[in-house]
Amino acid sequence: GRFLTVNPALAQMWGYASPDELVAEITDIASQVYADSSQRLEFARRMEESGEVRGFEYQSRRKDGSWMWVSENARAVRDAAGTILYYEGNIQDITERKRAEEALRASETRLSTIFHASPMPIVISRIRDGRYTEFNDAFQNLIGYTREEIFGHTARELNIWVVPEQRDLL
Predict the structure, then answer these.
(1) Alpha-carbon distance 17 to 1, whole Å?
(2) 122-132, pLDDT tens digit by residue?
(3) What are the Cα distances from residue 109, in Å, to 15, 67, 100?
(4) Long-range contact list for 103-108, CB < 8 A, 24+ apart?
(5) pTM value?
(6) Which end of the chain is more exposed for a tag (fewer CB within 10 A), N or C?
(7) Residues near 72 by beta carbon (within 8 Å), at least 6 away in sequence
(8) What span, in angstroms and rounded, lies between the C-alpha atoms of 30 and 91?
């Protein structure tokens, strides 16, 4: 549960002046590095089962107490009897990617809320064939079909255009 050796880039990423300082100060990886120590248990479980992890993401604590997201790739190094001696691998700071993903999720949630709560009928259909791929309740109420009856069908199939040829002009 402690580091044997680290490179200067990892020490700097976590806010330590040198690799030696990081190795000396972090004596329990589970409680000092992981935001959630159960993630360390999951990491160890995966290493025991498969001998490696790829893209293992977790929140990690910097020396100053701030948090960052990291992605870790590692493999277990074993002795001749198969006992794990240590892990070796690399860690990448993915904090900005996680922030961008969260911002995108929030934006998608806002857009979805606006789309579905709008009193105006709104529909999304594929250009190539006009099949409905999304629509709000106002559209469904306007044409009087159920979600199942609308989804994947076209305006022509649902016979909702007074002059069907007008749909082809869109």
Answers:
(1) 21
(2) 999 998 888 99
(3) 35, 25, 14
(4) none
(5) 0.71
(6) C
(7) 43, 53, 55, 56, 57, 58, 89, 90, 91, 92
(8) 15
Instruction: Measure CA 148 to chain center.
Output: 30
Q: How far is CA 162 from the centre of its chain?
A: 45
Cβ neighbour number for residue 60 with a 10 Å cutoff: 22
Q: What is the dihedral of CA 122, 125, 127, 131, to 10 degrees?
A: -140
Q: What is the pLDDT of residues 58-86, one digit of tens each?
A: 999 999 999 999 999 999 999 999 999 99
Can you tell me the distance from the alpha carbon of 55 to that of 50, in angstroms, rounded to the nearest whole number? 14
